[in-house]
Design brief:
The complex is a heterodimer of chains A (257) and B (431). Chain A is 49% helix and 0% strand. Chain A has 257 residues and is an all-alpha fold. Among the domains of chain A are: 46 residues, no CATH class; 115 residues, Orthogonal Bundle (Cytochrome Bc1 Complex, Chain D, domain 2), CATH 1.10.760. Chain B is mainly alpha-helical and 431 residues long. Helices cover 41% and strands 6% of the residues of chain B. Chain B is built from 17 helices and 9 strands. A 3-stranded antiparallel β-sheet of chain B has the order 1-2-3, with no helix packed on it. A two-stranded antiparallel ribbon of chain B has the order 4-5. In chain B, a hairpin with a 2-residue loop joins strand 6 and strand 7. Classes of the chains: A mainly alpha (257), B mainly alpha (431).
Chain lengths: 257, 431
């Protein structure tokens, strides 16, 4: 929406932005801009997936870049397709609870959800840095330690042991953790602890979240959200990591179940 | 204190009614089954033609929507029907011997569907729409029973209702039934065509459309006249509009094709099914045969044209509100719904003359602005277009302004909504 704001605020910039806007399909996302254009000639509604899923991109960005300004709506671009498709199904089944998302996916067919997941999984857009709460160096250090080494005392594996050395995830089921907002990360870990987010049994992430204290969650989320993404943000190749815990989602391959 | 007093009064009134009910209701009202259907043997229930017809009719009745928990096994029960009196979970109706209807006879099933009386003799809460299902023909009931018996049995104990006092006392239903339940199969109107009667049978019976599309009184009862005149859906904060041809708040201007289109595809040239109706379309009506959809349309179009709801004169000057709304509309809405409010054919619904915009309360338009959403995903419209949610972008004042504007722009004449009306819809649960 930043581009929309720019378009509205400085009309002189329009020509400069126009080419970019057209490439990005921005008119569809900038209602005011589209109206201006509509004043001279009615703009036909494009028969594209991007146009059809305006409800998704309003929060997650036209290319799934997330909205760093919101400090919450997560990036979807480049996340593994099975992971994304499964999350939509989980919202539909109530395994993930976030009312606006549950309402949004209510009547979508599995096939359509798969298509939407594919759209976001192949997007390649730069990461946006979101705000991280000001925390002491000790807290961030604790976060780094858990992410990179885990905690042997509570049998907590390192985040890296599944989500990859660069934390970019692994195809086709494990999401990357880099570039996600602090509020989103901490609320997901909290949801796993309280059972308002769950995954196929055995639910390894639920076990992990329950081995984290609330302070650990703050530390891990803050450290992850403050990291600069690596140059190559693609998820690692399938089979390139061996998870230390049994995970239901990894046992079922390619079904998105 | 007032609440306490009200409850005592409710109990008192209900007790009187129960006594009266007992006095008048001593004779058995249950309509007997045709003799031939009292003993249905197991072989009959295995007839694949009967089962297939039952599957179709179970879809027409939208049974799975209540009898399936979110993410649960089909028909294994568990989804709670929220009512102002408490939650009533729908039971398991798969043929499991212990927890479902594995040991039921057809007569047991008939008594539930037709008379609202459980197998154990308990009176059923009318969250199960037996006030409508009583109209179902025994042949259709048998087909549905055969279909349910053909499902894989799921062992899942049904949850008990969780109702506030005094509604948890089942015998209060004796009075309720006496007042509001009219037991009896659908009786065709001989002055009308077979098609009209088929439509009326589906709408009033299995379709149980009036359960939402009518106004309920304080005891959760409908007028009993199958008026389909529209009403707020209790505890869900959606308005089910008048299905008659009322101007401004009804289906005025809808052709038979528009009705069929909406039920089959989820949208028509006049609007899109949303909220609970989206689910009705995706799970039920899209699967109905064209003949049945056309019959429904013929019946709905014969409903009386009720007087147009006139917007009451505002107690305050709403011009500033509408001006602000017009500005927001131009910025946020017009690119899809058009400056003229006529939408884009087959893609974005018109707001001009849209019954969900002009319904009396304004809750549908408010909730759509906040939630956005996809048109229902159907076989005919598998990759539906969608509307972005504006909850995070627009303040309560902005939502009130734009909703008020669309309710009064073009041919619309509905009362404005005010800023204070908006916030409760931000927190309404979606299921």
């Amino acid at each position: 929406m930043n581009l929309c704001a720019k378009l509205k605020e400085s009309p002189n910039a329009i020509s400069r932005w126009l080419s970019i806007a057209v490439i990005l399909g921005l008119p569809a996302m900038c209602p005011a801009f589209a109206v201006d254009a509509a004043a001279s000639a009615a703009v036909p509604i494009p028969d594209t997936l991007q146009q059809r899923i305006a409800a998704c991109t309003a929060c997650h960005g036209v290319h799934g870049e997330g909205s760093a300004d919101s400090h919450f709506f997560p990036r979807l671009a480049g996340k593994p397709v099975n992971y994304l498709a499964r999350q939509l199904q989980y919202f539909q089944r109530g395994q993930r609870r976030y009312a606006p998302m549950q309402y949004m996916v209510q009547s979508l067919s599995p096939a359509y959800m798969r298509v939407i997941a594919e759209y976001f999984s192949i997007q390649r857009v730069p990461y946006q840095q979101s705000l991280v709460p000001t925390l002491s160096a000790a807290v961030l250090q604790r976060g780094e330690q858990i992410v990179t080494q885990g905690n042997p005392a509570t049998k907590l594996p390192a985040c890296q042991s599944c989500h990859g050395r660069q934390l970019t995830g692994m195809e086709p089921n494990i999401p990357g953790l880099v570039g996600l907002p602090y509020d989103y990360l901490s609320s997901q870990l909290g949801s796993w602890r309280t059972g308002t987010r769950s995954s196929a049994a055995p639910d390894c992430m639920a076990q992990i979240a329950n081995r984290l204290s609330p302070d650990d969650i703050t530390a891990v989320s803050a450290w992850l959200a403050s990291q600069r993404p690596p140059a190559d943000t693609r998820a690692q190749l399938a089979g390139s990591v061996t998870p230390p815990l049994a995970c239901g989602v990894l046992a079922v391959k390619g079904s998105g179940a | 204190m007032m609440k306490w007093l009200r409850r005592v009064m409710t109990v008192f009134v209900l007790s009187i009614a129960v006594l009266a009910g007992w006095f008048f209701f001593r004779r058995d009202h249950a309509e007997p089954l045709p003799v031939a259907m009292r003993t249905v043997d197991a072989a009959m229930l295995k007839d694949p033609v009967l089962i297939a017809r039952g599957e179709y009719l179970a879809k027409a009745g939208d049974c799975s929507v209540c009898h399936t928990e979110q993410g649960g096994q089909p028909y294994a029960g568990g989804r709670s029907v929220a009512t102002p009196f408490g939650d009533i979970p729908a039971p398991n109706i798969t043929p499991d011997n212990d927890t479902g209807l594995g040991n039921w006879s057809f007569e047991d099933f008939w008594r539930v569907l037709h008379s609202g009386i459980g197998r154990d003799g308990a009176l059923l809460y009318p969250a199960f729409s037996y006030t409508a299902f009583t109209k179902v023909h025994p042949d259709d009931a048998l087909a549905i029973f055969a279909y349910l018996r053909s499902l894989p049995p799921i062992h899942q104990t049904s949850k008990p209702p969780n109702l506030r006092f005094p509604y948890g006392i089942r015998n209060t239903l004796i009075a309720w039934r006496l007042l509001y339940f009219h037991e009896g199969q659908y009786r065709p109107d001989t002055r009308q065509s077979a098609q009209w009667n088929r439509g009326a049978y589906l709408v009033q019976g299995l379709g149980h459309c009036n359960e939402c599309h009518d106004t309920r009184n304080a005891l959760g009862a409908l007028s009993g006249r199958q008026s389909l005149s529209g009403g707020e859906i209790p505890a869900q904060n959606w308005y089910a509009p008048d299905l008659g041809s009322r101007q401004n708040g009804g289906l005025a201007g809808w052709s038979g094709k528009d009705i069929v289109d909406l039920l089959k595809t989820g949208q028509s040239a006049k609007g899109v099914a949303l909220g609970p109706m989206a689910e009705v379309v995706t799970k039920s009506t899209q699967y109905l045969a064209d003949d049945d959809l056309q019959a429904i349309a013929v019946y709905l179009q014969s409903l009386p044209e009720r007087p147009m709801a006139v917007a009451p004169k505002e107690a305050f000057n709403s011009k500033a509100l509408a001006d602000q709304g017009e500005k927001i509309y131009a910025q946020q809405c017009a690119s899809c719904h058009g400056q003229d409010g006529n939408g884009v054919d087959g893609i974005y619904p018109p707001l001009n003359g849209n019954v969900s915009v002009t319904e009396p309360v304004g809750m549908n338009a408010t909730r759509v602005v906040l939630l956005g959403g996809f048109s229902p995903g159907t076989v005919a419209n598998p990759r539906a277009y969608s509307m972005p949610p504006f909850a995070q972008q627009l303040s309560d004042a902005d939502v009130a302004a734009v909703v008020s504007y669309v309710r009064q722009a073009w041919s619309n004449h509905a009362p404005v909504v005010q800023e204070r009306d908006i916030s409760k819809y931000r927190t309404t649960p979606v299921d």
